């Protein structure tokens, strides 16, 4: 299964910590990780295999949204920073909308992501 991981700048350290805490599940359940660009860099430095797409502001969220729409991406873990502004807010909304359109599980904070991990 394919899981997309995305973290805004203020949440990237939390994403790395989250993945480390769930590395067993990620390694043993045949999961392919995809990500936006800078999130992917951080996560691969931490030792995870990840297919990093474009950085969010350059279209990474939109690329992941397309994979959701095409049925290729099965889950999205998106640690958003609600206290920051994002020039690509329309892309972010599109991604979340398409998760709802296609009934793809979407976690927008670590607590929800934790529950989704337990379901794997
Ligand atoms: O902006 C993002 C999500 O909206 C994340 O993009 P980066 O992983 O490239 O920082």
From TrEMBL:
Segments forming domain MGS-like? 1-120
Q: What is its EC number?
A: 4.2.3.3
- Name the InterPro entries on file: Methylgl_synth (IPR004363), Methylglyoxal_synth_AS (IPR018148), MGS-like_dom (IPR011607), MGS-like_dom_sf (IPR036914)
Alphabetized Pfam families for the sequence: MGS (PF02142)
Superkingdom of this entry's organism? Answer: Bacteria
SMART domains hit by this protein = MGS
SUPFAM superfamilies per record: Methylglyoxal synthase-like
Q: Quote the record's binding site residues for substrate.
A: 8, 12, 36-39, 55-56, 88
- Provide any one GO MF term from the record: methylglyoxal synthase activity
UniProt keywords, alphabetically = Lyase
The record ties this protein, via CDD domains, to:
MGS (cd01422)
Which PROSITE patterns did the record assign? Answer: METHYLGLYOXAL_SYNTH (PS01335), MGS (PS51855)
Q: Name a single GO biological process.
A: methylglyoxal biosynthetic process
Please give the family membership noted in the entry. Answer: Belongs to the methylglyoxal synthase family.
Q: What does this protein do?
A: Catalyzes the formation of methylglyoxal from dihydroxyacetone phosphate.
Q: Which NCBIfam families does this chain map to?
A: MGSA, PRK05234.1
Q: What is the protein named?
A: Methylglyoxal synthase
Q: What is the lineage of its organism?
A: Bacteria, Pseudomonadati, Bacteroidota, Flavobacteriia, Flavobacteriales
């Amino acid at each position: 299964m394919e899981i997309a991981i995305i973290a805004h700048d203020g949440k990237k350290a939390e994403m790395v910590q989250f993945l480390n805490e769930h590395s067993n599940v990620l390694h043993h359940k045949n999961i392919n990780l995809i990500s936006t660009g800078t999130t992917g860099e951080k996560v691969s430095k931490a030792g995870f295999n990840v297919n990093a797409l474009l950085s969010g502001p350059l279209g990474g969220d939109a690329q992941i949204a397309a994979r959701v729409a095409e049925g290729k991406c099965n889950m999205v873990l998106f640690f958003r920073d609600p206290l920051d502004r994002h020039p690509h807010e329309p892309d972010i909304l599109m991604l979340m909308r398409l998760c709802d359109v296609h009934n793809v599980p979407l976690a927008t904070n670590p607590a929800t992501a934790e529950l989704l991990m337990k379901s794997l």
